[in-house]
User: Fold these one by one.
Assistant:
Number 1:
Amino acid sequence: MEGQSLPTPPGALKSPRTSLPSFEDELPEIRRPKKSQHEAESPADPGTLKLRESGASYVQSAHWEAILTKIRGLKEDSVTDSRALPGSHLFYGPNRHATREEILAAIPPRQVVDRLMALHFDSYFVTPYIIHGKKFLREYETFWEDPGATSISWIGLMFSMLYIAAQLQTFTIDVSDGRAESLKAECLAMKDAFREKAIQCLVLARYTMGGPYILETLINILTGEFVLLKDGGVTDGWLLIGMILQLATRMGCHLDPDHFPGISPFEAEMRRRMWIVILQLDLSLSLETGLPRNATNTHIDPKEPRNLRDCDFDEDTTEMPPSRPETEWTPVLALITRGRLVSALGLICDINTDISPPSYEKVSKVENLLEDVRNHAIPLVLRWGTAPHPITDSPNLVIQRVSVETTYYKARILLYRRSLVSGQSPQSQERDKDSIRICLDSALKILSFQEMLHEESQPFGRLCQLRWKVTHILNQDVLLATSVLCLYLQDVDKFELPQTAGRTRRLPRAEEVRQQLTISHKIWLQRSTGSAEAGKVAKALSIVLGNTEGSDENGDGPLSYDFMADIDAIPVNGFGATFNNQYFASGFYSPLSFFDNVLENRGT
């Protein structure tokens, strides 16, 4: 420190660089298993890195866009969307500081708020998991009695819920006439205003310090910006969920509340729900961006939430009741089930994060865990099954079943997709054939769900009232499956032309893949005018299927189109496919009629 040279440590001349011992050095039992010769020769697949003046962009090799870049004939800029998105308003928005009085003055009349809140609750979108209905309704009534006495963080939560509801309202508007266009513009303006007020409340509440209602508000903003609309760019979503995760960790949500005797049974249960929601959002956004997940299994031990309805417990509960049987569907049962799948899917994502190919033993171990969850941890009420679903099953239950099923098949694709891009060696040829079969079976199953959901989302379909969920939530699983099948069909000769007695024999699998991709292509084309992601995949399918000179399903015009023009024409805050719903009222002041009595019946 006084200018004297430091003594040279022994061995420094032999090794110019020194480093701290790794975990593998310290704990021999977790060292990587030595790979066999053919595994050691497997090429590393680091993913895709794009360098532009606007910034650097990296996605993992398992991401659907990285898979599409391997398709010959598909230009790079047809896959990567170069439009500058506005970004999260929490990061970039024109957010000015507001006073409490200004925020209170921006609250709409109670009649408007009531209808929007009913719409929000009836959507079964995140809220049932992180907000206790009975407790919220008591706080809601107290707020209207004396708004000035309500904490600013609770008001921020209310605005974030109005923000979600205003988005949902736009999905019910018939855009076939000029009046509907003005109503939609009004809803979009209100959506932006509600988001701004929610963020201003967070700032006033000094949200980085944590506290009541902060995580709930942040999660609502996140889901509104990146799950429903994706109008802020998926990278911002990945950054925002990382911030939420760190804030939740600072608040101790990563540890089970039983460690802390001062936490009430009610708060303990809600914290467990909150943590599992954050883990699932983290994993979902990580897969969507093609980046490592923020959360790992280290230092995390919260117990699983109980399968309870909100009417089963409240703030004054001194001892939590036992879980309801998992034969009974509750709003949180799907959350619990997906949490079990996350335990396996998270490990699969970690494998894909590792630049080195995993050993066969490691893949087998994770596969066994995934199958164990599939066979023993998914309740029967949430299994898809083979029999038709009773007409008494709610549309939300049907969609939850699809979500659970596609999560399982997505996990299988992510675990085995390397077999489609790595060269087969003689030693691993049979093993790779099994891996490819698993990928194909899983991808075809996901596309069969896409076809079913698309049909049932049309007018008179069973899911027509929830088309927004089909359009905005299940996209990523279908994107991955479509990309995998595109890649397979491009290199089908490598997979389906084995030599048999001096001649080649084509297997029938390619035709099955082509038929399913043709159906999927029509669906993506219908949605490509309102979705950049749909346009990318439709273009890739046009190239792979060789349909650029074909005709559309109605025969009215060519199937080919100016792809980049479609991308440029998409509005910054564009939605997915629009739905002309003539059977339900539209407009901000007349939401769907079946929402009217939700507040009265919530929690019963």
Number 2:
Amino acid sequence: MESKPAAKGLRERERERHKWGSDFSATESTKSKVLKVHPQVLAAQVKDVLTLLLVFRFINALCVRTFFQPDEYFQALEPAWSIAFGPDSGAWLTWEWQHQLRSSLHPAILGLAYKAVDGAMGFLNLFPPFRAFILVALPGVLQSVFAALSDFYTWKLAIDIYGRESNAPWAALSMSVLNPWQWYCSTRTFSNSLENTLTIAALAYWPWEVLAGTRAYKGAPLQGKGRVTSLRVALVLAAVAVLLRPTNLLVWLAVLGLSLARLTLTGGSPWNSSTLVLFREIVVCGTAVLAVSLVSDRLYFGFWTFPPYKWLYFNISQSLAVFYGHMPWHYYLSQGIPLLTTTFLPFALVGLYKAAPPLKNSASLQCSIMGTLSAAVLTMVTTLSLISHKEVRFIYPLLPILHILAAPYIIAFFTQPTTATTTTTTTTPSQQSLTSPVTLRHKRTLANLLSLNLLLAGYLSLFHQPAPLSVLTFLRTEFERLHPDALHFRPQDHHHNNKEKEQKELFALFLTPCHSTPWRSHLVYPALRARALTCEPPLHTAPGSREREAYLDEADRFYHRRDDGREYGVRFLADEMWPFSSSSSSSSSLMVGMTTLDKEMEMGKRKEEREERENGGGEIPRYIVGFEGIEPVLQSFFGQEQGQEQEQGDDDAAAAPGRGMGVRLTRVWSAWNGAFNEDWRRRGRLVVWDTGVYEGSGSHEGEGKLS
């Protein structure tokens, strides 16, 4: 029997209530065995699924206690913090925001959440450390809502494709919930995570009837009840996703291309009513979203700009993407898709292979939908493989599609119909996934796969690189202890005199690879002043020039290994971080035998150096933060071995440029940072050293204290 031409899905089933559509070639005798459920039960089921997903992802957000990539914070939370608390709040805005490469829409959502929650807590006059704790946790909680919606719309689109009476939608939902990558990344505030939710939601609202062509709907597939409204919702969501991440356009080029092909190839005229409606809505919805985006960027940047154009200009014309890494062409095939799907990879590959994008008139609507989704995956992976800089999260929006395509094959592999319900007409995996009684098979394999997923998710979210987050908790609580009168959230909320006093202290110096920790979103208080090594790209150089090839950013210069075999970092600290250190370390010996005039000049020079330190140029911090591999560097620079100061001589001063700075390093905190790290600079424990130049620091609790 020929399959029905339309997948009614949730929207149509809720409207018609009594109709049950299926895209599988099941016999009427098989369908008759499916128990029809009351519409109120169906609505309650949808509500229950969404509620459980919201609770699940909320727990997920609280359990993710590790650092993954800096974009989670510096491309979302830092500009959001600036929106909520002002430009003087201490937020670190990277070069992308200074040159308008990013859309302000994503930070605006987070910034409004910051502002609303902080306003409510301020109205209730809550204790500042508690307010800081809530603000740190807020972005993950908000993102957990988007993560739950991603799971929900994956299930919803699978129902639209396979039918409610199929087990495949539940398989797709289970894969989404049990996927380690989803657990690890879905509640992080990457723009890719929001892009993932927007993409699958737009696909769920997309009127797939257009793939059936005009003949199946008597020339008007978009004239059905609610079809234009559904199209508008899909286009708005898709437009926002494209503005957030321009590469998302590749997904919609495939979907729109095949939709237009089916509308034109199966109709008498390419300019039929459905084609005109589709073009009209694309223009109207795209223009509306673009206008909102332009206004948002105008309010954020202070002038009119178009971030997608700037993104293309800097990454393609200026070739700056290569500055952040170069991967082989097969990266997404050999690493990207396997990391996304993990143990579900074989089923995803089978689903992609089986779902060829057909344009034949005889193809069922279900086959057309699956073929279009497969084409979207292949289009995005192929195109992004041509770009030098690649990351797994760039293809993150494809993960729900891969789950949906893999669903019938994972059902067919791990279940089989009971003997009493097996029919000779079910010959494909999709036909075997009806909700007739089934039994599990390959149970040991299934248990091993699920155990491996749980192990990966647990390790990555709790034990792999947790120190970059916990060190900021330590610094924030130390600041709360040492400066209880400076716990304000906006600089203008504090008295001028106290602010002036606090500005003399650099609380923390991070000698780590650039962006190794979050920043103001976790430090919170603007009075908590901190400094870190930067890694600005060579914007001033021409692509392919010798100057660009030789360029080293600040972090690279610190970790640069010298040809003379000496410890890296010592010369950087002496020449760039504390350029006054060499002269101050030997100033006493230099002043011996000087004339009065020379002494006065030397004293004036030292006074200028002190003023430079106090004004922020080479000032000594209260705490130094770094991975334990830099401890010998610090000891070599400050002339301190195993916590003991040595007698100073001229030769020692030359070997230890910072000996005369009065620094006596003491470990006051350290934390394990995972079993492995591919970056040698980040290996080992993360350590906080007290410099000993301020009173009341953590060193009073005992030298060498570890946590």
